[in-house]
Write a structure and sequence with these properties.
Structural class: alpha+beta
Order of helices and strands: HEEHHHEE
Shape: elongated
CATH topology of the largest domain: Threonyl-tRNA Synthetase, Chain A, domain 2
Number of strands: 4
Distance between the termini: 11 Å
Number of helices: 4
CATH class of the largest domain: Alpha Beta
Strand content: 15-25%
CATH architecture of the largest domain: 2-Layer Sandwich
Oligomer: single chain
Length: 169
Amino acid sequence: MAGLSVADVFERTRRNHGLEHATVGVLIQRLGPTIRLVARSTPRGFYIYGQLPTEAVRAAVDEALARLRAGETELAVSPLCGTNIAVAGLLAGLSSLAVASAARRPLDRLVGAVVAGTFAVLLAQPLGRLAQARVTTSADMRGLRVRRVERFDAGRIPVHWVETEFAGE
């Protein structure tokens, strides 16, 4: 990533994150909602961890990229994203702390923190999707190309590396 600004690295990661979400969504559509996998994006591509056939991953990446380019931008935002968990944790923690510090009796602190935390988690669902759409993912696939999809084993869990490049590289 030599020669790239921090903003460029962040933007590449956002775009790969969007393609990662779309790919996982296609895999779930094709293989069913019970498949177990985890994914993680980088500025150079993304990893998919799980027992998946390489051909299925490559086909899902190709379909996801085509669908994003065709305007299905909602594929870049996922209810399974860690951003949702981070937003929920942040809101629940802050709201619980605020309410608990305002109450005098221990039981009032506990009840207030539980109620505030519960409402914060409910509020975090739409805010997590918004954070993804505006901050952590991008559906902009202009100039993005998939260089390769490669499988390797990391212990007992197969890993697929999806390497991307951007126009001009």
